[in-house]
Write a structure and sequence with these properties.
single chain; about 240 residues; alpha/beta; Rossmann fold; six-stranded mixed β-sheet; 7 helices; about 30% strand; globular; ATP hydrolysis activity; MetN_ABC_transporter-like; transport
Length: about 240
């Protein structure tokens, strides 16, 4: 399998101006993700896990290192140096991101959020509507809420909707930042089913999880972090060892 993502010597520092202090979030991180793999990043809170994902998605701009992504449209591209226009295209068509939080306009409905994501991929309105209803049903979001503003949703409902919006696009690379943190066991299982389906269909996943039980028999590779550095690499269903 070819590498879809190669991270080389990636570093990111945050400056706290109020106390005139710098904090090194990640320090010369290097790893690879092969096409079709499910890679997990583990470690204590504050070890730098989320910073890696946000650098890949370019929410954060690292000060050094390279992030080589094998794009379907652009070929091999360094995400650290990509233009804003290139990043907008990749976020719409190739790279998905799921976090614990749903960022959406206040006057947009659940149905519109998911449908818009599908339409961005170039599908027609009929297909987008059918797929929207299918995935909202899968996550057991009450049909009476589909045309309600997401501001009225509970935290768990917003999280399920956030996951649905990302997964329905079937991205080439899906970044997962603690996507099941506040879900009950039944909802977690529904997320897991879709993850397994997407992997079978060719989506590559890179995720952060604290729930090791959830990750059993799902993840191919684990990178464990401590104080901004990778301290251990495991493969062949690593999460069954914890």
């Amino acid at each position: 399998m070819e590498n879809i993502l190669t991270v080389e010597s990636l570093s990111k520092t945050f400056r706290l101006h109020s106390v005139n202090k710098e904090i090194r979030a990640i320090n010369k991180i290097s790893f690879v993700v092969k096409e079709g793999e499910f890679v997990g990043i583990t470690g204590k809170s504050g070890s730098g896990k989320s910073t890696i994902l946000k650098c890949i998605y370019r929410t954060y701009l690292p000060e050094s290192g390279d992030i080589w992504y094998n794009s379907k449209k652009f070929g091999l591209i360094n995400l650290r140096e990509a233009t804003e226009r290139e990043m907008i295209y990749l976020r719409k068509h190739e790279i998905g991101y799921v976090s614990q939080f749903l960022n959406a306009l206040p006057r947009i409905t659940a149905r519109e959020i998911v449908k818009q994501a599908i339409l961005e991929m170039g599908h027609n309105d009929k297909y987008a509507e059918e797929e929207t209803e299918k995935i909202l049903t899968h996550f057991e979001l009450d049909p009476q809420l589909w045309d309600s503003y997401v501001a009225t949703f509970s935290g768990g409902e917003k999280l399920r909707l956030n996951i649905a919006r990302a997964m329905v696009k079937r991205p080439r690379l899906l970044l997962l930042d603690e996507p099941t943190a506040s879900l009950d066991d039944e909802s977690k299982e529904k997320v897991r089913v879709l993850m397994e389906q997407l992997v079978r269909e060719g989506t590559t996943m890179l995720g952060i999880f604290h729930d090791m039980l959830f990750m059993q028999n799902l993840c191919d590779v684990e990178y464990r972090m401590l104080d901004g550095e990778i301290i251990k690499y495991s493969e062949k269903n690593p999460f069954t060892k914890h």
